[in-house]
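User: Okay, second chain of the day. Same drill as before: sequence in, structure tokens out.
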Amino acid sequence: MRDISDALIKTHADRRFRSEYDYALFEYYRSAKVLAFLDRAGVAVQGRVLDAGCGGGGMPLSLAEHAACVVGIDPVNRFGDAGVRLARERGLPHLHFLQADGMRLPFADGAFDLVLSHAVIEHVQDAPLYLREMRRVMAPGGRMLLSTAPYLSFAGAHLPRLKIQIPLHLLVGRWMAFRTFRLLARYAPWTLKEPAHENSFIRDARSGIWKHDDLLELVTVTRLRRQIADAGLRIVREELHSTATVRRLSGALGRWVRNSPATRDIFISNMEYVLSHA
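Assistant: Same drill. Structure tokens below.
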């Protein structure tokens, strides 16, 4: 597996909003962390692989360096001038892209040995149906990687951050926080931490677009575990990554904050699962 290069990830993170091509390159280098997780879980990237929500195509590009056939799908053709171009430049004829809906996959049952859903399920209209479709196209003995973040955490909220670190979505609720950030982006962008080129709220406001909330599935640890089981999937491995704030806490307090149903959805920055047929 490819080594994780924090320097390369940071370099391409700084460039990622220049174009879809640059964002795909950022995804490509960041995907080393996903490959490392699969390696820890003993999951080989080989055979037929589906990336169900590939965005610009950086993740499938990375997978195609290891697997025999990789297909990346997305409901929007973000990959046309990114993943397709990168696959051609790097000589990967076994990497394919298709515009398709993850809730209605155009593939036969058991078509893939490995299915990936990386930071996708929170944007899906019907998460239970999406998971059932992932299970349907996963071959017997196959595996699925699922990663996301609880919607109450900063990472999972998909909201801007204020320069003064206030968890607005926890204080006033998501509905009000989202609309407050739309107004701030339009009339007081200087209150927001992210620069304009990294902040879709500001970019949309400057383009005269009234941004819509695309966080369609409100992920929590308990809810996602139940949805996984209801879809006929089994958790082979689960890693819940805490925020730096929790990692600085030691002893019983740190364990309680990390594991308690009352707090974990706020302080978990990423959830990673390996799933199989139940």
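Strands lie at 48-52, 69-74, 95-99, 112-118, 138-148, 233-242, 268-277.

User: Thanks, on to the next one.
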